[in-house]
Amino acid sequence: MRFGRVVHAGGTSYVEVREQTAIELECAPFGGVRPTGRAWPLDSVRPLAPVEPTKIIGVGRNYHTGAEPAVADPGEPLVFGKPPSSVIGPGAPIVLPAGAGQVDFEGEIAVVIGVRCRSVPRERALDVVFGCTIANDVTSREHQRSDGQWTRAKGYDSFCPLGPWVRAGFDASDVEVRTLLDGVVRQKERSSSMIHDIPTLVAWCSEVMTLEPGDVILSGTPAGTGPLAPGQEVVVEVDGLGALANPVVAG
């Protein structure tokens, strides 16, 4: 089952996607799927970011062959926050801010929380996960190096593309993550190479903060990240989840 948010002739709605049809829902599907009776052909609607998170929790250095291969296993998950205002949907432009220096793509699997939860044991962590979608954790490398923490580097508007759909109950334990820049594969790794798997990440984050329905945990990126330039298109693909494509423009 796939879910998301779309723009249609009458406004904006949460939908369930069945084959080539977008079926309107009364509200976000976390508390149950309640169709309104309206539906549209999928090619007549425009996908938005599939959820509206209260918070986005990023995870750094989480692949054995990761973006920082010379850095040792951090022991515990290394987490940071991205603001909800950084979220954009499929097809929306990634805007490169003036003065941000090198801005890199980071293709990732995004975990979507389904219920309000706190202090979830690892063995029950998947019970609070609604599903997974695709993310691009866009990052200013210059600010990441200079600031000593990553809020500004990760937090610009448009620096968190998400989508196109959330697939409920998705098993993300061993799937391939790929990032293509102008059609050339730049990242390619299996999620089984994560240092901390998804149940561990969910449990660890829930010990720190209450997780709300629709919140997103970005599970980390493999090796191969690189700079973006205006006029390019970056596409993140995850087997079973589809493809998230975004153009790049100058700010």
Automatic annotation (TrEMBL):
GO terms for molecular function: acetylpyruvate hydrolase activity; isomerase activity; metal ion binding. Keywords: Metal-binding. Residues 55-249 form the Fumarylacetoacetase-like C-terminal domain. This is 2-hydroxyhepta-2,4-diene-1,7-dioate isomerase. Coiled coil: none annotated. InterPro entries: Fumarylacetoacetase-like_C, Fumarylacetoacetase_C_sf, Rv2993c-like_N. GO terms for biological process: carboxylic acid metabolic process. Residues 1-50 form the Rv2993c-like N-terminal domain.
